[in-house]
Description:
The chain is mainly alpha-helical. The chain has one domain (2-228). The protein is 74% helix and 0% strand. The protein contains ten helices and no strands. The two termini are 13 Å apart.
Amino acid sequence: MPSITFPVALAAGLLSFLSPCILPLVPVYIANIAGSSVLTASPPSRRYIFLHTLSFVAGFSLVFVILGAAMGLLGVMVPRGLLRNIAGVLLILFGLFLLAATKVPWLNYEKYLPLNRARGTGYLRSLSVGAIFSLALGSCTAPVLGGILTLALSSQNAWQGVYLLLAYSLGLGLPFIAVGLALGALSPYLRWLNRHAYLTSIVSGALLIIIGILVLTGVLDYLAYYLSTL
Protein backbone atom coordinates (compact mmCIF):
# COMPACT_ATOMS: atom_id res chain seq x y z
CA MET A 1 0.00 0.00 0.00
CA PRO A 2 2.85 2.54 0.62
CA SER A 3 3.58 2.87 -3.12
CA ILE A 4 -0.01 4.02 -3.68
CA THR A 5 -0.79 5.99 -0.56
CA PHE A 6 2.38 8.11 -0.58
CA PRO A 7 1.41 10.10 -3.72
CA VAL A 8 -2.17 10.27 -2.44
CA ALA A 9 -1.02 11.78 0.86
CA LEU A 10 1.38 14.13 -0.94
CA ALA A 11 -1.40 15.32 -3.26
CA ALA A 12 -3.72 15.75 -0.27
CA GLY A 13 -1.19 18.04 1.40
CA LEU A 14 -0.89 20.15 -1.75
CA LEU A 15 -4.69 20.35 -2.10
CA SER A 16 -4.94 21.45 1.53
CA PHE A 17 -2.48 24.26 0.79
CA LEU A 18 -4.58 25.35 -2.19
CA SER A 19 -7.81 25.33 -0.17
CA PRO A 20 -9.69 28.61 0.44
CA CYS A 21 -8.90 28.25 4.15
CA ILE A 22 -5.13 28.47 3.67
CA LEU A 23 -4.10 29.87 0.28
CA PRO A 24 -5.46 33.45 0.71
CA LEU A 25 -3.77 33.72 4.11
CA VAL A 26 -0.33 32.39 3.20
CA PRO A 27 1.26 35.90 3.12
CA VAL A 28 -0.35 36.60 6.52
CA TYR A 29 1.06 33.39 8.01
CA ILE A 30 4.53 34.17 6.66
CA ALA A 31 4.35 37.76 7.90
CA ASN A 32 3.27 36.48 11.30
CA ILE A 33 6.15 34.04 11.70
CA ALA A 34 8.93 36.06 10.03
CA GLY A 35 7.76 39.59 10.80
CA SER A 36 5.59 42.07 8.94
CA SER A 37 8.63 43.44 7.10
CA VAL A 38 8.33 40.52 4.64
CA LEU A 39 5.40 42.38 3.05
CA THR A 40 7.27 45.68 2.65
CA ALA A 41 9.53 46.96 -0.11
CA SER A 42 12.58 46.06 2.03
CA PRO A 43 11.98 42.48 3.23
CA PRO A 44 14.52 40.56 5.34
CA SER A 45 16.95 38.13 3.74
CA ARG A 46 15.69 34.98 2.06
CA ARG A 47 17.70 32.90 4.54
CA TYR A 48 15.86 34.56 7.44
CA ILE A 49 12.44 33.94 5.84
CA PHE A 50 13.41 30.39 4.87
CA LEU A 51 14.48 29.41 8.39
CA HIS A 52 11.32 30.85 9.96
CA THR A 53 9.09 29.18 7.39
CA LEU A 54 10.97 25.91 7.85
CA SER A 55 10.40 26.15 11.62
CA PHE A 56 6.69 26.76 10.98
CA VAL A 57 6.50 23.71 8.69
CA ALA A 58 8.40 21.60 11.23
CA GLY A 59 5.86 22.63 13.89
CA PHE A 60 2.78 21.36 12.08
CA SER A 61 4.67 18.35 10.67
CA LEU A 62 5.58 17.22 14.18
CA VAL A 63 1.94 17.30 15.29
CA PHE A 64 0.75 15.50 12.14
CA VAL A 65 3.39 12.77 12.48
CA ILE A 66 2.41 12.14 16.11
CA LEU A 67 -1.24 11.89 15.05
CA GLY A 68 -0.31 9.52 12.23
CA ALA A 69 1.62 7.21 14.57
CA ALA A 70 -1.27 7.24 17.05
CA MET A 71 -3.80 6.36 14.34
CA GLY A 72 -1.59 3.54 13.06
CA LEU A 73 -1.34 2.07 16.56
CA LEU A 74 -5.08 2.49 17.14
CA GLY A 75 -5.80 0.56 13.97
CA VAL A 76 -4.08 -2.54 15.42
CA MET A 77 -6.94 -2.84 17.92
CA VAL A 78 -9.65 -3.11 15.24
CA PRO A 79 -10.28 -6.24 13.08
CA ARG A 80 -8.97 -5.77 9.53
CA GLY A 81 -12.29 -6.34 7.74
CA LEU A 82 -14.25 -3.99 9.99
CA LEU A 83 -11.51 -1.39 9.80
CA ARG A 84 -11.54 -1.45 5.99
CA ASN A 85 -15.30 -0.83 5.94
CA ILE A 86 -15.08 2.00 8.48
CA ALA A 87 -12.18 3.63 6.63
CA GLY A 88 -13.93 3.39 3.26
CA VAL A 89 -17.17 4.91 4.56
CA LEU A 90 -15.33 7.72 6.35
CA LEU A 91 -13.32 8.61 3.25
CA ILE A 92 -16.49 8.77 1.14
CA LEU A 93 -18.23 10.92 3.77
CA PHE A 94 -15.26 13.30 3.92
CA GLY A 95 -15.35 13.58 0.13
CA LEU A 96 -19.10 14.26 0.06
CA PHE A 97 -18.62 16.93 2.73
CA LEU A 98 -16.08 18.75 0.57
CA LEU A 99 -18.33 18.59 -2.49
CA ALA A 100 -21.27 19.87 -0.45
CA ALA A 101 -19.13 22.72 0.89
CA THR A 102 -18.86 24.16 -2.64
CA LYS A 103 -22.63 24.75 -2.56
CA VAL A 104 -23.20 25.37 1.16
CA PRO A 105 -20.86 28.21 2.29
CA TRP A 106 -21.45 27.80 6.04
CA LEU A 107 -19.81 24.36 5.86
CA ASN A 108 -16.53 26.22 5.32
CA TYR A 109 -16.77 27.90 8.71
CA GLU A 110 -13.53 27.97 10.62
CA LYS A 111 -12.05 29.60 13.68
CA TYR A 112 -8.78 31.49 13.39
CA LEU A 113 -6.59 31.90 16.43
CA PRO A 114 -5.38 35.47 17.15
CA LEU A 115 -1.75 34.66 16.32
CA ASN A 116 -1.03 38.29 15.53
CA ARG A 117 -1.10 39.09 19.24
CA ALA A 118 2.07 37.14 19.81
CA ARG A 119 5.29 39.09 20.19
CA GLY A 120 8.70 38.43 18.70
CA THR A 121 9.80 36.36 15.73
CA GLY A 122 12.04 33.70 17.28
CA TYR A 123 12.40 30.30 15.65
CA LEU A 124 10.83 28.58 18.65
CA ARG A 125 7.80 30.85 18.25
CA SER A 126 7.57 29.96 14.54
CA LEU A 127 7.69 26.28 15.53
CA SER A 128 4.91 26.87 18.06
CA VAL A 129 2.79 28.77 15.53
CA GLY A 130 3.13 25.81 13.17
CA ALA A 131 1.95 23.43 15.87
CA ILE A 132 -1.02 25.68 16.65
CA PHE A 133 -1.77 25.97 12.93
CA SER A 134 -2.09 22.18 12.68
CA LEU A 135 -4.70 22.19 15.45
CA ALA A 136 -6.64 25.17 14.07
CA LEU A 137 -7.21 24.06 10.48
CA GLY A 138 -10.69 24.93 9.30
CA SER A 139 -13.49 22.67 8.19
CA CYS A 140 -12.52 22.91 4.52
CA THR A 141 -9.13 21.27 5.18
CA ALA A 142 -10.11 18.99 8.06
CA PRO A 143 -11.85 16.44 5.76
CA VAL A 144 -8.69 16.04 3.65
CA LEU A 145 -6.51 15.63 6.73
CA GLY A 146 -9.15 13.33 8.20
CA GLY A 147 -8.96 11.21 5.07
CA ILE A 148 -5.20 10.77 5.39
CA LEU A 149 -5.55 9.98 9.10
CA THR A 150 -8.17 7.40 8.14
CA LEU A 151 -5.69 5.79 5.74
CA ALA A 152 -3.16 5.79 8.59
CA LEU A 153 -5.75 4.07 10.80
CA SER A 154 -6.48 1.43 8.16
CA SER A 155 -2.77 0.70 7.77
CA GLN A 156 -2.69 -0.80 11.30
CA ASN A 157 0.96 0.20 11.50
CA ALA A 158 2.48 3.13 13.41
CA TRP A 159 5.36 3.51 10.95
CA GLN A 160 2.95 3.54 8.03
CA GLY A 161 0.99 6.26 9.84
CA VAL A 162 4.18 8.29 10.26
CA TYR A 163 5.03 7.72 6.58
CA LEU A 164 1.62 8.93 5.40
CA LEU A 165 1.58 12.04 7.55
CA LEU A 166 5.15 12.91 6.56
CA ALA A 167 4.01 12.78 2.93
CA TYR A 168 0.99 14.97 3.76
CA SER A 169 3.21 17.45 5.62
CA LEU A 170 5.60 17.54 2.68
CA GLY A 171 2.77 18.36 0.28
CA LEU A 172 1.50 21.09 2.58
CA GLY A 173 4.88 22.45 3.69
CA LEU A 174 6.91 22.73 0.47
CA PRO A 175 4.54 25.31 -1.09
CA PHE A 176 4.76 27.37 2.11
CA ILE A 177 8.55 27.43 1.80
CA ALA A 178 8.41 28.22 -1.92
CA VAL A 179 6.01 31.13 -1.37
CA GLY A 180 8.14 32.43 1.49
CA LEU A 181 11.21 32.54 -0.72
CA ALA A 182 9.42 34.22 -3.64
CA LEU A 183 6.55 36.05 -1.97
CA GLY A 184 6.52 39.15 -4.17
CA ALA A 185 6.89 37.31 -7.47
CA LEU A 186 4.22 34.74 -6.62
CA SER A 187 1.56 37.15 -5.35
CA PRO A 188 -0.28 37.44 -8.73
CA TYR A 189 -0.40 33.65 -9.04
CA LEU A 190 -1.71 33.30 -5.48
CA ARG A 191 -4.54 35.71 -6.29
CA TRP A 192 -5.40 33.73 -9.44
CA LEU A 193 -5.40 30.44 -7.54
CA ASN A 194 -7.57 31.97 -4.82
CA ARG A 195 -10.21 32.97 -7.39
CA HIS A 196 -10.39 29.32 -8.50
CA ALA A 197 -10.07 27.79 -5.03
CA TYR A 198 -13.47 26.09 -5.28
CA LEU A 199 -11.91 23.67 -7.78
CA THR A 200 -9.61 22.46 -5.00
CA SER A 201 -12.61 21.34 -2.94
CA ILE A 202 -14.06 19.49 -5.94
CA VAL A 203 -10.78 17.70 -6.72
CA SER A 204 -10.19 16.90 -3.03
CA GLY A 205 -13.70 15.56 -2.59
CA ALA A 206 -13.49 13.41 -5.71
CA LEU A 207 -10.08 12.04 -4.63
CA LEU A 208 -11.38 11.05 -1.20
CA ILE A 209 -14.49 9.38 -2.65
CA ILE A 210 -12.44 7.40 -5.19
CA ILE A 211 -9.96 6.25 -2.52
CA GLY A 212 -12.87 5.38 -0.21
CA ILE A 213 -14.46 3.18 -2.89
CA LEU A 214 -11.10 1.51 -3.57
CA VAL A 215 -10.69 0.80 0.15
CA LEU A 216 -14.24 -0.54 0.57
CA THR A 217 -13.94 -2.88 -2.40
CA GLY A 218 -10.43 -4.07 -1.50
CA VAL A 219 -9.07 -2.82 -4.82
CA LEU A 220 -6.53 -0.58 -3.08
CA ASP A 221 -4.94 -3.59 -1.35
CA TYR A 222 -4.92 -5.48 -4.64
CA LEU A 223 -3.22 -2.58 -6.46
CA ALA A 224 -0.67 -2.27 -3.67
CA TYR A 225 0.15 -5.99 -3.92
CA TYR A 226 0.37 -5.84 -7.70
CA LEU A 227 2.73 -2.85 -7.66
CA SER A 228 4.91 -4.50 -5.00
CA THR A 229 5.50 -7.44 -7.37
CA LEU A 230 6.68 -5.29 -10.28
